[in-house]
Amino acid sequence: MGDNPRTSDSDRDPAVTAERSEKPMQPNAQHQYDVTPDDLPLCCPMPGMQLWNSHPRVYLPVEKTGWAKCPYCSAEYTLRR
Asked: Which range marks the domain in which residue 76 is found?
């Protein structure tokens, strides 16, 4: 909205999903994300998220239980098959 070239509309949209997309997502903007097998191996922050203001990348074992919680930001991920 302002003159800052580093922000985009997706940076300000709290309804952005965890799906991979062309536009970077705001990391840690939500506390629950639905992911698909295409997102595996699952890591937080996810590859489409901007990393400049986030925690170190950690891989989460979501395959067996269908659910995982990030130890850094407490984001919860649910695997949708």
From this structure: 39-81
SS (H, E, C) the chain: CCCCCCCCHHHHCCCCCCCCCCCCECCCCCCEEEECHHHCCCEECCCCECCCCCCCCEECCCCCCCEEECCCCCCEEEECC
Residue 47 lies in a domain: yes
What total of structural domains would you count in the chain? 1
Q: Give the pLDDT confidence of 19-52 residue by residue, as tens digits.
A: 444 556 555 556 899 999 999 999 999 888 877 6
Tokens standing for residue 6:
């580093």
Answer yes or no: pTM beyond 0.85.
no
